[in-house]
Amino acid sequence: MPDGAGLVLIGPSAEAVQVGDRPCKRLAAEPAEAAVEEAEAACAAGARFVVLLHPDRPAEALNGKLRRRFLDSMRPITAQRLAEVFEARNA
Fold first, then answer.
1. Is residue 43 part of a domain?
2. 20 to 30 Å CA-CA from 63: which of 10, 20, 33, 34?
3. Residue 32 in domain
4. Which DSSP string do the residues of 23-45 spell out, in sequence order?
5. Does residue 61 carry a pLDDT above 90?
C-alpha cells in the first residue's frame, strides 16, 4: 500500500493492527450494514483501502454481507486466510 494511504480496518482484531502514521478508521464487523456504511463514508472522505480482518476460528467468521458489498463497490486487491484488501474505486 502506498505510504500515507488511508485505511479502514474491519473486524475483531482491528484495534491490534499497527498502522504507524497512516490515517485509519477501525470498525466493528457487526452490525454489517453499519460497518459498510461507515467504511463507504470513510472512503468518500479519502480513505483508499478497506481491510476485512477475518478471525482465526471459522466459527467466528465475519458476516458474508461485508465481503459481497465490498466486492460490488470496490476493487479487490488481495485475499488471504486472515485478511482481504479492497481499494476504493475513487482512488
1. yes
2. 20
3. yes
4. -EEEE-S-SHHHHHHHHHHHHHT
5. no
pLDDT tens per residue, range 8-32 = 999 999 999 999 999 999 999 999 9
78 pLDDT more than 80: yes
> Under 8 Å CB-to-CB from 8, ≥6 apart: which residues?
24, 25, 26, 27, 38, 39, 42, 43, 47, 49, 50, 51
Q: Which three cell numbers stand for residue 16?
A: 491490534
Give yes or no for a contact between 35 and 27, defined as CB atoms under 8 angstroms apart. yes
CA distance 58 to 24: 26
Question: Residue 26: how many CB atoms within 10 A of its CB?
Answer: 16
Cell for 33? 450494514
- Residue type (1 letter), 29: A
| Domain span holding position 47 | 6-14+21-88
**Pair 41, 34: CB distance under 8 Å:** no
Asked if residue 1 is part of any domain, the answer here is: no
